[in-house]
Design brief:
Shape: globular
Number of domains: 1
Order of helices and strands: HHEEEHHHEEHEEEHE
Number of helices: 7
Strand content: 25-35%
Helix content: 25-40%
Bound molecules: iron/sulfur cluster
Distance between the termini: 18 Å
Number of strands: 9
Radius of gyration: 18 Å
Length: 248
């Protein structure tokens, strides 16, 4: 099936990011194909850990899982190429304090801007959902504005050793990477789901016959992901963000 213009643009961005990544890291050709949507044998392997249901790509043709491990401190590409830094209300409280602001309003005025973007990753192919999110974003460079939204920039909080100057108060979205998460209503209860962001900016993906190696990571991230997703919901309820959901 032919790709729409938007889908083609997205694939080109991922391809460009992977080419850039390949200058420093060896990217397995199969991992590259998964990123570019070229594998037709990908199945959605789900596993529930604590309160999070993970969706892990499984390549049925070769019986391989796509897994991930972080290569920091050898890598800090996500901070060099972060597309946006949406803030939860908890992030706003913590980061405004860390940056020495006496009031949230002056922090918001000087350090953030409002951005809107579509997130179509929460889909189940039988019932696709497009969510449009509007949130306050932390500026990755002092002069950042909505024209930079979604474009990779080196974050100003990355120091010369590859560490984050805001850590441990960095935005929740930075703790989450390279996962993305969403919540669903299941039998009137909130259920939290997560999968990988395959933007081509992270060299930590690899293939494995077994899930064993990633299990400690999934256990550790289940708390981070659950708290972050609930914080986003709280942020929207408190009026610091907005979400529009459209079913097709
Ligand atoms: S880009 Fe990936 S491997 Fe590198 S620091 Fe970020 S999460 Fe870790
Ligand atoms: S805030 Fe910190 S962790 Fe997040 S992108 Fe910037 S340097 Fe990286």
């Amino acid at each position: 099936m032919a790709l729409s213009h938007g889908e083609e643009e997205k694939v080109n961005d991922v391809s460009f990011a992977l080419d850039d990544l390949s200058k420093k890291w060896k990217i397995d050709p199969i991992v590259r194909d998964v990123h570019l949507g070229k594998r037709t044998d990908i199945q959605d392997y789900t596993i529930k850990i604590n309160q999070v249901t993970y969706h892990i790509p499984f390549l049925s043709g070769s019986s391989l899982f796509l897994l991930w491990d972080c290569l920091w401190p050898d890598c800090h590409n996500c901070c060099d190429k972060q597309g946006r830094l949406p803030l939860t209300s908890g992030d706003i409280t913590n980061i405004s304090k860390q940056l020495g602001y006496e009031t949230k309003s002056s922090f918001l005025r000087n350090e953030t801007y409002v951005a809107t973007w579509d997130n179509d990753s929460t889909s189940d192919s039988n019932s696709p959902i497009i969510t449009t999110l509007t949130m306050l974003n932390l500026k990755r460079k002092q002069s950042e504005n909505e024209t930079d939204n979604g474009h990779p920039l080196t974050c100003r909080f990355l120091d010369e050793c590859g560490s984050c100057q805001l850590h441990p108060n960095k935005p929740g979205v930075c703790w989450l990477y390279p996962f993305f998460s969403w919540s669903q209503n299941e039998k009137n209860l909130v259920s939290v789901h997560a999968s990988f962001q395959l933007t081509g900016d992270c060299p930590g993906f690899y293939l494995s016959k077994k899930m064993d190696d990633i299990m400690p990571t999934l256990i550790k991230y289940s708390e981070i992901i659950y708290n972050y997703t609930m914080n986003v919901n709280t942020t929207i309820r408190e009026g610091f963000g907005k979400i529009d959901v459209i079913n097709y």
